[in-house]
Design goal:
Elements (H helix, E strand, L loop, with lengths): L12 E7 L4 E7 L4 E5 L6 E8 L2 E4 L5 E4 L4 E5 L4 E5 L3 E8 L3
Antiparallel strand pairs: 1-2, 2-9, 3-8, 4-7, 4-9, 5-6, 5-8
């Protein structure tokens, strides 16, 4: 995964790690200053965002932010607003169940 998905200056990079009827795993790499805007999905399910390297903030509704460091994991309902902002180059692993 580290060799297949590098960091890109023009936007975040994404790598599909696993896809099945039960869950999906994605690797997102963000350059410092990039973000995944706050969004939600109108379906039932859960997601996790695990920080592998770098630092930033998990983003939520009403300007909520939570520090995000290597080893931190955010778990939420997929219908809850969520996003991410990278303060340094940042690599995260996202799991979505069921997959969308």
């Amino acid at each position: 995964m580290f060799e297949e998905n590098s960091f890109k200056d023009g936007g975040l990079s994404r790598l599909l790690v696993h896809d099945s009827p039960y869950f999906k795993i994605l690797n997102f790499n963000f350059k410092a200053g990039q973000e995944l805007p706050i969004h939600s999905h109108d379906i039932e399910g859960q997601l996790s965002i695990a920080v592998l390297e770098g630092s930033g903030e998990f983003l939520g509704e009403n300007d909520t932010t939570i520090p995000a460091q290597p080893g931190d994991i955010l778990i939420s309902e997929i219908s809850e607003p969520h996003g991410l902002r990278a303060e340094t180059d940042m690599r995260v692993l996202v799991t979505i169940a069921p997959p969308i």
